[in-house]
Amino acid sequence: MSGWRPRALWLLVVALAGLAWVLPPIAQPPAYHDFADQRACWGLPNCLDTASNALFVLAGALGLRFVQRGQGAWRDRREAWPYGLFFLAMILVGLASGYYHLAPDNARLLGDRQAMMLAFMAWFAAVVCERVGPVAGLRLLPLVVAAGLGSAAWWGWSEARGMGDLRFYFLMQLYPVLLVPLLLRLYPPRYSGDRIILAVVGLYLLALLFDLGDRPVLALTGGLVSGHTIKHAVAALAAIAVLLHLRQRTIKQA
Fold this sequence. Notes:
mainly alpha; 10 helices; globular; single chain; about 70% helix
């Protein structure tokens, strides 16, 4: 990538990284694993939080099948690679998160967060491929995947030593939220479907809100469902939105 647009994006990346570096470490709350809904059913611990992860597996499997069958509009078939990795990562998210919710602890949470980072970074690289071009996106893919996995690994390493630090894990989640809308604004579309891409970002933010409202949502629904369970459903819906975008988009004429 050359020109002022990539320089502006890289400036934002560096500025946010610098801000994260100078901030004090962000510790994980001690009660993080104490989810609101801990009911068991049919012998399954934390039933709804655990079982709702099947939605990730389903969304990932549908998307992976779509990509493997070569469906959809592609200017360059290489652009399918990060999307394939994204849908595979969604399957891993479902498995890792389901395993974590069976008996929540830091060791299991690390696997969950690494799977989520793989999904976030693969999707971000896919959008770069789609908006900027396959060369830029595929060059970026291993870099952002390494950075995302590294941010989760740093949290796990620091947590195990009693100095838990979530700064860089949060930073790697913030990058796609900020940079994807900027990519859509700065680069002319190569495909249709910008609104669905923005909807994916919106659904992710909505999922975070439900997660933060875990207990209030459970109380509001009269004990029917917790915010964390709804978070899983909304986040899986974001993966379905990615698939919907691939199914509906068309190639823009240059």
